[in-house]
Amino acid sequence: MTVPIGERADRLQGYRGPARELLDRYAIGVWSEVEIVNDEGSSFCGVVLPRSETADDLHIVVKLFNGYNVGIAADRVVSARETGYRKAVYKIPEKEFPFDPRKPNVTLLGTGGTIASRLDYRTGAVIPAFTPGELYGAVPELADIANLTTKKLFGVFSENMGPEQYKALAVAIGEEIARGVDGIVVGHGTDTMAHTGAILSFMVQESPVPIVLVGSQRSSDRPSSDAALNLMNAVRTASECDIAEVMLCMFGPTSDNYDLLHRGTRCRKMHSSYRSTFRTVGATPLATVSRYANASGSHFTYLTDDFLKRDKARVPRITPVFEEKVTIQYYYPNFNPDIVDGLADMGYRGLVIAGTGLGHVNKPLYPAIRRAVRAGMTVVMTVQTLWGFVQMYVYDTGRDLLDLGIIPLDNMLPETAYMKLAWVLGQTDDPARIREMMTTPVNHEITPREPHNGYLILQGGLPEVDAFVQRHWK
Amino acid sequence: MTERLDYEAVGLISGLEVHQQLFTRHKLFCRCPSGLYTTTHDGEVLRHMRPTLSELGEYDGTALMEFKTKKEIVYLLNHLNVCTYEMDDTPPFLVNQEAIDVAIELCLMMNMDIIDEIHIARKQYLDGSIPTGFQRTAIIGVNGWLPFRGRKLSITHVSVEEDSCREVRDKGHQIVWRTDRLGMPLTETVTGPDLRTPEEVRDAILLCGLTARSTGRVRTGIGASRQDVNVSVRGGSRVEIKGVPRAGHAVRLVHNEAVRQVNLLALRDEMRRRGLDSPDAIRVHAVDVSEVFADSDLDCLRRALQGGGRVFAVRVEGAAGLAQHPTQPDTVFLDELSGRIRVIACLDEPPIVLSAAALPEFSDRHRTLERLRKRVRPGERDELFLVFGPETDCRTAAEEIRLRFADAAQGVPKETRQALTGGFTTFERILPGPDRMYPDTDSPPTRVTAERVAALKARLRPAPWDRIERYMKSRVPEETCHWLIRRGGADIVDEVVARTGVDGLVAAIEIGQRGRALRRAGTPVERLGAGEWVEIFDLFAAGRIPREAISVVAARVAKDGGGASAAAAAEGIALEPRERWREEADRILDGCPQAAEPADRRLRRLVGRAVAMLRGRAPAREVADHVRGRLEEVAR
């Protein structure tokens, strides 16, 4: 397919300076099939690719016909000639999704992130761009599990999720439940998936069906991606799982083995890149979900029976509110009190402190906290150790803090506390009501007790631990 | 050779892809040690692979084929030599610039044009040999050549890439890989299709190896250098023979592949005569015939059935006898089917596929065959195959039989074949195309400046052909030249000559022949670096040890360590300084009055006395020369 060079809108995509001049001089451009010869007489035959905008303006990128990419210095080119034109269509074959009346109906809500991604030439990076529809073409196994409908709510990186998206997501989930679906899957970037899991746990309560967040740690453009298996297991969970809560469905081990279902309020991303990055903290996960059924025909192994059961007759409570003037501060030695003063001056209504040890900050901070509380700021305490409870009666410092009006949040995770405080402050400014709502768990964000196997960071290098690890697929 | 072939007449064309591990401290994209091999593991990971689109929007055929095999892939990990990068649980670190430097040096030695801006690409491999499912690779140089048999062997390009895993076992639907080698930097040198005979292929492999060794910056030893050989004949297709272990093995492998392609072309012609001239013309019917063999005495089938598997008869219309059509010397088309079925359908119990026309003997053979015919009703011109194992795999096998016949109707399929012992090859995978390449979004491009290239050029060691020419001028035998360059001894010879002034031939013979003999005899001569050799040759140059003692002293230094003088003393070779023994010799002459005897007898007598007196303290030949010289002087 040849397009006249003047009609190619993206002809110079990403090219500047000398490289751009070269394209102009030889009347070639992006997606041109070219033969370029340099001053050493080397000839390069291939397709001109768009140039990343962060790259320099001295080189032309050509994908050679043997598949390799090379950057050719513009000032070394002695001739260039267009031999053809082919624009890449980076598209997974989109398939009509088969409908089977006997299968459960699941809605996939798309938010972006690496579970649905493609290559971007502008930055040379992976961007969220696959429509959920294209996803079916890539993972046909989904049709064996459920009838899937999709809605692309937004296409944002996980780190760009925010109050607007949370509210829209909660509302969309409410609508899908009202439509009578059997389960909901939310495609999400992994960086803030646990944050979304937490806020949705508060915004959408008493759900009749599972609400499953899923993503991937290796983008779906890679053969070894965890995206396909995560997606299959998430759709399976939405379709068949008995747990009608907000959950995260991500790899248990880093092996392609099974996914864990984590409670939205008790989960955290614990590694920047491992597939098995999500861990339930201070408790055990709800269940495992596998691609293949076990002997009794179930894909699930429930690790607890303390959860909200699926019940399509139940009517959910959707409370899509969020106070944006809330912050989280990680305490460290030499934490300057004027940070707290500054927050109060800027009108912040809520402050979550991730304190040291059992929930401590140092004395010089006390006056600032007292001023903030008096000015109407809600200050809550969590622990930066992540595991364990806030216990402010053990030391005098803790008791002093309580006197200042700080609300201890037991074993609520700092990020969960942040989401909950924003949600609570979105509903009330009555201090007593705030305190009551913050300390009354909605869904296990505070647990009365911590099981001994809720904290298991095995120490590698120890012979007995290494022996255990060696016997299992990591 | 079992079949003679006129290579020119059949249009044999061959080219090389030579893989060479580079000597760097760390791997290519992480900080793990390179070259640390282990045989144990302390962790395992399970993965599967799915094909993905290339950046131009196409699936690669190999990728789809490998996806069909549905393998469970297990990686064995040892914390000593792999980190979370090799497991594909951490993105790559910036590319190892030391490896890029070595690759550039290799390119410069091969007269190549260095790429201005290096882009890392991903090359998909879904066989599991790399946990990411792709190999990170980048072209470093293009458009080079090597002097070869009086002409130029063109070097198309050199890329730097990550080495892959080592296969531990491959059984059924599970393949197990060891990861120690994974991620080590390699160069791949791709020659043009310039080679015309098996012997040329062998010599080109040797030359490429010699060139890489000449940089002094590559790894040596088992597995450090591996080559793939591309072979085709006129009318055939490019077939890549993978993992040729040594240059010498290439001769038979290339010959056998040429024979195979000629035979496959003859098979195609035969199929055309039968009207099997296109993929659509191949009609295949698979029938479950397990009950026919339920009580049979045929071991392989009985075992399969007992293990819960099935037996399938696969009838190919009009293909009678084709299974026995020759391919490689001593192999037949049935072996081609068996290779494909083993790899793609994961049926690996021998003999994998049976031709009903050539079943082995077993007790109720006649009756069983009768029942089989009744069940399947093959026509007289049909060929009947049996496959056995899990039902889905049998069905895949039937489809592979159809596809292989369809390929045969076209001639020679493009494929990668694995080199086996004895010069034979077996199917490994369909030859991958450019559609399996896409850019590595995790890695930024590297600009290679002219200054960097110039600095690398300045430190470049001599090219092997320059060295060989120089050594041969000193009358060093060619074989010794090659050995010195291959084993790194050439650098030592050059340094010894430069620093001690000894004759180049002497240094080359002592290091390249006597030293090599010592090594063969088990003396660890490889411990000696240039510094040690220079010390030894210093003693020789100063007349402190005779030439015949050089290897003796070298062996002692290699075994004991320590200095050359101490080693010479330990061996009892302690020559007197020249001036001192000359004085002693002169005293013999002075104390021996002129007598009435013939000059030559007098010479023999005096030389004999001097040599006997100075035995072990002075080199005999020098003593003799000295005495002769003095007598001639006196006579004048």
Question: What oligomerization state is this entry in?
Answer: heterodimer
Structural class label of chain A: alpha/beta
What's the Cα radius of gyration of chain B?
33 Å
Largest interface: A-B, 61 and 59 residues
C-alpha end-to-end distance of chain B: 70 Å
State Rg of chain A: 27 Å
* Total individual domains of chain B: 4
> Percentage of helical residues of chain A?
10-25%
Q: For this structure, what is the CATH class of the largest domain in chain A?
A: Alpha Beta
Average pLDDT of chain B? 91
By DSSP, the count of extended strands of chain B is 21
Sheet-strand content of chain B, in percent, reads 15-25%
Overall, the morphology of chain B is elongated
Please give the number of β-strands of chain A.
23
Instruction: Supply the number of structural domains of chain A.
Output: 3
Going by CATH, the architecture of the largest domain in chain A would be: 3-Layer(aba) Sandwich
Describe the sheet with the most strands of chain A. 8 strands, mixed
Give the strand order, joined by hyphens, for the main sheet of chain A: 9-6-10-12-13-14-17-18
Count of helical regions of chain B: 21
SSE arrangement:
The complex is a heterodimer of chains A (474) and B (636).
Chain A: H1 17-25, E1 32-38, E2 43-48, E3 59-64, E4 69-73, E5 77-85, E6 105-110, E7 118-120, E8 125-127, H2 132-138, E9 147-152, H3 163-179, E10 183-187, H4 193-203, E11 204-205, E12 211-214, H5 227-240, E13 246-251, E14 258-263, E15 267-269, E16 278-280, E17 287-290, E18 300-302, E19 317-318, E20 326-330, H6 338-345, E21 350-355, H7 366-374, E22 378-383, H8 396-404, E23 407-408, H9 414-425, H10 431-439, H11 463-470
Parallel strand pairs in A: 6-9, 6-10, 10-12, 12-13, 20-21, 21-22, 22-23
Antiparallel strand pairs in A: 1-2, 1-5, 2-3, 3-4, 7-8, 11-19, 13-14, 14-17, 15-16, 17-18
Helix pairs in contact in A: 3-4, 4-9, 6-7
Chain B: H1 7-10, E1 13-21, E2 43-47, H2 61-68, E3 72-77, H3 97-109, E4 113-114, E5 117-118, E6 121-124, E7 134-148, E8 151-162, E9 166-171, E10 174-178, E11 185-191, H4 198-214, E12 225-232, E13 239-244, H5 247-273, E14 284-288, H6 290-293, H7 299-306, E15 310-316, H8 333-345, E16 353-355, H9 365-376, E17 383-389, H10 391-410, E18 415-419, E19 425-430, E20 437-439, E21 446-447, H11 450-458, H12 464-473, H13 478-486, H14 489-500, H15 504-520, H16 530-541, H17 550-560, H18 564-570, H19 578-590, H20 599-613, H21 620-635
Parallel strand pairs in B: 3-10, 13-18
Antiparallel strand pairs in B: 1-11, 1-12, 2-3, 4-7, 5-21, 6-7, 6-20, 7-8, 8-11, 9-10, 12-13, 14-15, 15-17, 16-17, 18-19
Helix pairs in contact in B: 4-5, 8-10, 12-13, 13-14, 13-15, 14-15, 14-16, 15-17, 16-17, 17-18, 19-21, 20-21
